[in-house]
Amino acid sequence: METILNLEQYTLIYRFSHILLISSAYAIYQKHYHLFISPAAIYLTSIHYWKKPDYSYRRYLDMFVVWVGFLRQHYYAYNMKYANTYYILMILASSCFPIGIYLHKKDSWKSTYAHIMLHFLANIGNIILYSSPSTAESVS
Hints:
Shape: globular
Number of domains: 1
Structural class: mainly alpha
Order of helices and strands: HHHHHH
Largest sheet: none
């Protein structure tokens, strides 16, 4: 099956997907054990998909896991100290997806950069959220 981007582009996204390991590790470090699950699961499906991105089940599995992880984390973020900053960054990150789709046929490199920006903003949002005091600590 033909890939949706050229080798250089999808290799760049594949490599950048490893940023999810930082989010996962930071969630554990901050004792947000219930939150590390989302970036860890997204990491696994992301690297599985971006090693050779095509329109196979791997694409839809990745999108499904991202969607479930996104909803799950939004649910837990609601009462956390840095929720507002997290939600703003997630809105910005989410806007990169339709921008990337729009750019895909016009300029695949700009589409690639939009997808990388999605990963970057979402993971910055995760790290900010995980900086909130853990549930064992008081939130003031």
